[in-house]
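Supplementary Data S3. Sequence and structure tokens for construct A.
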Amino acid sequence: MNPPAHQPDVSPIASFFLRWGRRIAAGAALLLAALLLLELASAHFLPKRSVRFLREGTFDGQPAWIDNPFFSYRFSTPRAARPSPPIVVPETPAPGTLRICLLGGSATMGFPDPSFGIGRQLEVMLEHRYPGHPVEVVHMTLEGGNSHVLREVARDLKRLRPQAVVVMTGNEEVAGPYGPASSLGRFHHSSRIARLLVLFSRTHLSRLCAAALDRWSPARADLQAWRSQEPITLQGRMSPNDPRLRSAYRSFRQNLDAILRQAAEASPVVVVCTVPVNLRDCAPFSTSFLDDETAAQEVREKLRAAVAAETATNRVEAARLYADVIRRDPTHAEALFRAARLALAENRTAEAAALFSRARDADALRLRADSRINALVRECAADTSSSLLDAEALFAVRSPQGIPGREMFLDHVHFTFEATCLLASSMLDRLEFLRAFDPEPTGDVPGPETIAGELLYDPWGRAAQLEAVIDRQFRPPFRRQLDNGETLARLNEEKRKVDDRVAAISQDNARAIFARRQASRPEDAWLAVQAARHLFEANAPVQAETAARAALDRWPHRFEIRALLSLIRAVQGQKAAEGIAFLRGKDEDAGYYDVSLSIDVGNELLKRKRAAEARPWLEYALRRDAWNSEAAIALAEALHRLESGSAAVGLLQSAIERNPDNPLLWENIASHYCLLGNWELATMCFRKSEEIAPYRYERLLKWAQAMVRLRQYARALNPIKGYLAAMPGDPEGLEILATIQSHLHAQPETPEDTGKKEETSRKFPWE
């Protein structure tokens, strides 16, 4: 009989770790099983939505790839999410089709919409260059689309089978989704965690978590909606030495490398572009300071002395003091920018170019691609054997004194129409050099004037574009730039000239031009949308509806086209219930688009003094989301115009009970109390709004507007002056001031008016 096998002794420590190791493994297995069950349950209970950028569909009875309106929900709250540009392309390209995929963020897409962006201009150039061949430029772009987002977009390149892929990204790396300055940035300090968060966004479980958070804290999305545009904290600011930037650069490098490799698998030709930005006419958005407060204070004093010397035209002394500031703090963005402008004024061009570049790289709010980003683009192009289009160098060569500025840019990163044309033509040259297309070109490439005419850019599109740019300049962070006043003055002068050109074209001539353009491009849904908007503004709703229907025939899935058509029909007398049903669609998941677009329709009707028609649209939006303060404010205005001032105040009181930390609600209820003559409550509410957001100068504008509506011009004078002191050049504020002054001059101030103004000054020390 064999003796029993010897059992090795196990130490107590080893036994402890073995026992707990088994428990941890069992716990991990249970957790994984629970997550799997939650994922399956989420897929069952949540609306069926694809997480891919493209979804399957049909067009003209043929299988087609269509943009997914809910793709951006993965990276933003539904209320803040913006859809990608419309995409409807056959799954199998027709013979001879020239198909190009364009990947990028808002600069690549075009501002304020893609109607005149790189993709649209490239499309027109290809149609002229290769007549008789179908052209499809697929806009795989998103507002805020950085490399984290575009890496997910690039998964669908193989589905499209394009002849060429063009990639240009880099501006949104820090502030965009999963960037260190974004709302999710605080959760990661490594590229691996950022990537895991992106992968998690593909799951149904991530949607379940977001839905649970919204239900648990419904006011959160409402607060984020206005806080996203206000300088609440300094979270987004970071110095050039911030370790979070290193994580952002690593993520960008890895993501761009993956994007280019996915593009190479889908297409034989891949072009990647460096990212040009406005250097000369875009001051830094914010400056980071030295950690040593004593040294930082010395730098501030030196900078004040330098600015004073420059103001006194003592350029030599100013240059010396700026140099001293930069020596003490080499990453002081404001000093670098001021020194660059001074060097440029003295024709020290090379020095100015270097200083402008350093100012951009030192900007504490990193909304522009910096030198490191473009260096990584060049590295990725070399590593993946992609063709590099150095747009940064191209813009420098084509700019006055070699420094890109207002000739190329509308603001900090978005291109002018002429610069977009330059970039699109350069892309076309590169694609032809790389033999991306089988057919030989037989036509000429059109210039900017021809393209502007075909796309209805000049002058109507230009006017709309300038209006959007000017509106942004009054909002943070633009209004805090040191050159904001200069920029606004220049843009307002351009807008005045363009508006004069628009006014010089009679409505009959405008309608004829729109009709000719549409007839020349009958399949162009982009052009149909532009024509519909311009015709609607020109008080031609019947023709506008025809144009909007043409766009809807091409893009039947787009909610914003349905909203435009509903707005046009509302002006013609269609009932709101019919318009809302049309907007939502039959048995269709509308997400949050029906809410946001209903508010847009309601606000547009209010602008046209159609409060009765606006009311049901806004009531619907508020029923769908009782926590939406924007809807409550707009509906209160509609109720007041319908002579229901008490109902308007009651509505805002209910909204404040839900969202007591939203200053916009307090500002508006203060205005309504003014209109009702309840000065005591108006004062209290106004003070509350000031307590929550003291930097929101819009409250002064709203107070002045309320006083003007009551014909209390003496009371309105001080607040509007206070507003314009903080927001100089605001056309709305200047218009109100002119109205006030005209009435005060026409009717000399009485002792009673003086008493009212003095009373107002005691309550509200504006100045």
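Construct B, processed identically:
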Amino acid sequence: NSVQIDGDKGKPLLVTERNSMYAMNGDKVRVSLMARRRNHAKEVEVIDIVERARDIFVGRLIVDDDIAYMVSQDGLLASNILIPKKKLKGGRNDDKAVVKVIRWPDAQNRNIIGEVIDVLGRSGDNDTEMNTILVQYGLPYVYPQAVEDAANEISEEITAEDYAEREDFRDVFTCTIDPADAKDFDDAMSLRRTDDGQWEVGVHIADVSHDVTEGSVIDREAQKRATSVYLVDRTIPMLPERLCNFICSLRPDEEKLAYSVIFTMDDNAKVLKYRIVHTVIKSNRRFAYDEVQKILIDSGAVDGDKVNPKGEHAVELCQLWKIAKQLREARFNNGAVKFESEEMKFELDEKGKPIRCYFKKIVEANNLIEEFMLLANKTVAESVGKVKKGKTAKTLPYRVHDNPDPQKLETLKEFIVKFGYKMKSTGTKGEAARSLNKLMADCEGRKEQKLIQTVALRSMMKAKYSVHNIGHFGLAFDYYTHFTSPIRRYPDTMVHRLLTSYANGGKSGNVDYYEEQCRHSSDMEQIAANAERDSIKYKAVEFMKEHLGEVYDAHISGITSYGIYCEIDENHCEGMVPMRDLKDDYYDFDEKNYCLRGTRRGNRYQLGDAIRIKVANANLEKKQLDFVLAE
């Protein structure tokens, strides 16, 4: 165990179990510095537990005639939680349950005592396991009835007053483009030719803040959740279903209220002017990405120079893609970083069991929407943040992305030399980004591509929310915010409200309040991402459980001191070959060069190397695949 002193960015201090007072990961404790032993790390003793990080845990119940206890799912607890039989709430052996600690260990009693507050169901059942993941991360798995009731009272009627104070886009071609299984449509696009021969492109965003009043019961729940959570087989929405799937969702052939950025652009995709206005729209068509992709390919818009529009609304879609393509090229020329990404997907049967595992590539139809959303977010951020010299910008939550870690960039630079590549690790933001892009282009299609992309990604910082704008390195924008997804992200709703207030002459929002909300939203975004990753891991292990003993081509996706992680090429499921199974040599871990080196025979396992593995074990409880090297 270790402890980090508040405000101290130095090395964590060692806490042995006997000196921990049974404190857990994340607990706030008071410590006393112990006498330093020669050649030993600085050690402290816990003298008081000021605040417990959590008192609710999830795991599997073990119930027999004499005793009942819970084995925690995440392994954070040093021991199991004992549960008095009368506190089981009907829980049976091998059920997954949510347990609240009612007594922590002390000098007299080292046991953790708890009570069951909810039984999730049988271990291995799909709903049970998905809910277990949510509880493990402190995420809600049911929507509060009081909030649902409040949403059911909201009228979907558009009033005469609404029409009077909004721009009318109901007769302009408008469509949504989303995944085939989407139900919440945050954004729509409109297109029309202006009288003077320019293009007017509308980015129309669901006007959530019109229906969700600040401080209301719905708003407080949304603020707490901060984001929708997307597990493999379900969405845990930020807003009640009536709002996110019906009232606010920009469904086809229905009049909807929107908050819109309207761009006037020339044939070269240059923005001549824009306005940010409240509108009323009526979507002509709800497209899935695959439908738009087919139209773009059939029309020759993806590969060819000559475009011959074929398909429903192909003329408008091809024109939108032409503009998006120009915006995309300009963005990368300006220094945006280009990493190709894929999404892991599962085909599930009616019981949620994975029957197929595949990767979905990002295609032109995705890029079309992405470019206009990026442009809208950037424009909104500039409209508030970009002020004349000597003026102070009003408060706004920005989406910020810091420059890469210079030390990690230097490590990357030294590492790629071995493969014959060069890059700049110093210089301006734009130079660093262009150098990274050149590296990605140079190694494309080579066997080291995956390896170099992995190491390059590790040099990047995480994007987050903050009212203190430092720009966005990855996108090469000086001003960027999130405006385009208020149904599933709370920062977008905050931005909508502030924009409306500022347009009406309102004063600047409180910096400390909004920074705290940004911090909370960033934290919840990370937690949601971790839960999503765990649900993918669980389904991958469940899928591979049917393939024990089979041999696959793979590549090394991670190197650690305790083994090598391998990703199967065919389906991207990842497992580990433990160090103890590498019996042909004694291996040293070379952290800087991402490899294991055999000390006697010189054999080497390098991040990115091709490898043949056999699936040895699939542990659903730990979401863990064990591989062995194939003969």
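Residues 511-544 form the longest helix (34 residues). Residues 229 and 235 are 6 Å apart (CA to CA).
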